[in-house]
């Protein structure tokens, strides 16, 4: 992670979402591009491993959400990154604002290794 942490997390989430929504590439290939094979995420207390991440791509692709990300703050310490951001999403005629508190670690190549996310929809 050589870039500013705000830019890094914004680019990471935006690129991952763009690849999932705007390509027909195999979801497993996309997930592997952005995550280590042993990735584990905890989103609002729910454990999500690689297989569950891949399964999550189906509804994302079906709904084809549009959105933007507003990073309020982000700090990095070595391979660890903490960020607070808002996802502004439009899908199926609804507009949502989702506040996210993110704590994660990344491999030297920039792939996510672990993440803890707390979210709140406004």
From TrEMBL:
Name of a matching Pfam family: SnoaL_2
InterPro entries referenced in this protein's UniProt entry, alphabetically: NTF2-like_dom_sf, SnoaL-like
Transmembrane intervals: none
Residue ranges of every copy of the SnoaL-like domain listed in the record: 31-114
Keywords, sorted A to Z: Isomerase
Gene Ontology terms for molecular function: isomerase activity
Protein name as catalogued: Ketosteroid isomerase-like protein
Organism of origin: Nonomuraea thailandensis
